[in-house]
Design brief:
It contains ten helices and 14 strands. The chain is an alpha/beta fold and 330 residues long.
Length: 330
């Protein structure tokens, strides 16, 4: 059977600068894998993340050997085993899921047992900015049920107060992206307890997780950078109450499903998250989102343009892509 693999970089300009505690970006750069086996074709997208030492060039280099193995006829599991968890394996794994769905006429939802919801409440992210600017952004999204607030160590209380006043009917995810200390967290605790906070996401650097021991959280503290795969879960007990599953961290849907099930067995709440990426990256994650407590998949919302048949996010509600876009057949 004829096999062919292709990989390419894709640059997605953003509609506005996206700022977090570690820096700012004006475009998202992703890597798209396309696999053909006979008449069937599958696609997957990964987003290299510098925080984890990734780059587009590095991901392309990592994919060379497994894509050659795919073309040579290696089994899917053997092809995936050539890659570590990360953006490269995510792009390849999701392309393989899409391929198998089209080969067998059976959806990814049926194969995983995880339904892809037709719609789901999805956080709208506010980029880190001056308090007045963040309040203006919050007012523009005030109809959204859930708003994610990017923060750092500079005047977090002022920014929180400004956003909360501008969106009085919303709940909030607070996300400092490792930018706080335990002292800052303790100082903010009364304010966090007063506001409608759904999650406090990765407040401390990963090497300071131990500082969360003994903290009485006013809302669940969620591990993001501290969680990549199911193997990390045991070390998060007693420090975190929730975990953020991202396919670019787990290395694809296969490990994301395993991490979801292990997290639930250990009593963690689950959040589904994403990098800034297109609908091709978000659609596989919807299978995890349907079984999650909190969903933050607004990556495509930041793009100036997206796939025409992709997801749609309006009023804080994400709607699934058109039938046949990924993981199923029209």
């Amino acid at each position: 059977m004829l096999r062919h693999a292709n990989v390419r970089r894709q640059r997605w300009p953003l509609k506005a600068p996206f700022r977090i505690s570690r820096g700012v970006k004006t475009a998202a750069e992703t890597v798209i894998v396309t696999l053909r086996r006979g008449e069937a074709c599958g696609r997957g997208e990964g987003t290299p993340y510098p925080r984890y030492g990734e780059s587009a060039e590095g991901v392309l280099a990592l994919l060379a050997e497994p894509l050659a193995a795919f073309e040579a006829g290696a089994p899917d599991d053997a092809v995936l085993a050539l890659l570590p968890a990360g953006a490269a394996r995510n792009a390849l794994d999701c392309a393989l899921w899409d391929l198998r769905a089209r080969e067998g006429g059976r959806s990814v939802a049926a194969m995983t047992g995880l339904a892809r919801p037709a719609e789901v409440v999805c956080a709208i992210t506010l980029s880190l900015d001056e308090p007045d600017a963040m309040a203006a952004a919050a007012r523009a999204s005030a109809g959204a049920p859930l708003i994610k607030i990017k923060l750092d160590a500079d005047s977090p209380a002022e920014r929180l107060e400004a956003v909360a006043a501008a969106a009085p009917r919303s709940r909030f995810i607070v996300d400092p992206n490792e930018g706080w200390t335990r002292a800052i967290l303790d100082d903010l605790r009364p304010l966090l307890a007063r506001l409608p906070i759904a999650l406090i996401e990765q407040p401390l650097p990963t090497d300071s997780d131990h500082d969360l021991e003994g903290f009485d959280p006013p809302a669940p503290v969620c591990a993001d950078e501290s969680l990549h795969t199911a193997e990390d879960l045991a070390g998060l007990r007693g420090r975190y109450q929730a975990v953020n599953i991202k396919l670019d961290k787990t290395g694809g849907l296969t490990e994301a499903v395993a991490t979801l099930r292990a997290a639930r067995a250990m009593g963690f709440q689950v959040m589904t998250g994403c990098m800034v990426a297109s609908s091709l990256a978000i659609t596989p994650a919807l299978h995890i989102a349907g079984a999650s407590d909190v969903v933050d998949l607004d990556g495509p919302w930041w793009l100036a343009g997206d796939w025409p048949a992709g997801v749609r996010l309006e009023g804080g509600v994400m709607r699934a892509p058109k039938l046949g876009f990924w993981g199923d057949q029209p």
